[in-house]
Amino acid sequence: MWPVFWIGMGINFCTDLRRREISLSATGIMAFVRLLSLQFGRGAGFAALSAEYAFSILPGGLLAAASLLTGGDPGMGDALLLTVIGLYFPPVSILMILGRTLLLVGLWGIAGLLSHRGKEIPMVPFLCAACLGELL
Fold first, then answer.
1. pLDDT tens-digit readout, 42-55
2. Mean pLDDT to the nearest integer, 3-32
3. How far apart are CA 60 and CA 115, in angstroms?
4. Residue 112 above 80 pLDDT?
5. At a CB cut-off of 8 Å and minimum separation 6, what does 75 contact?
6. How far apart are CA 28 and CA 36, in angstroms?
7. What pTM was computed for the model?
8. How many other C-beta atoms can be found within 10 angstroms of the C-beta atom of residue 132?
């Protein structure tokens, strides 16, 4: 399960840096593998998709709402990826990941403003760093 997660994150890392979008196929495979592992792993079945997972995917849903309200800033792909990440981490961890990601994006944005670069900031590299930091 975790190798699929990190391979998917790596693919999304590269596509976000190059094209400013995520790979829907990689993200879909990440979600599919996690849902399969919840269904067939440890005999828990989809009953494991209880309130814990509902709260874990809630930040991704809120980010999707923010994307719709702001016309795409942050992107819907970032919200979808955060929702899938919520399937892998418990609620407290996903909030820590989101907080670290926003902190890193904010610092990168301030550095970009100071250097007078007005480029779009890819969020997935910071999500990867925050996920790695949460596991360490």
1. 655 556 566 677 88
2. 92
3. 31
4. yes
5. 20, 21, 22, 67, 123
6. 12
7. 0.85
8. 13
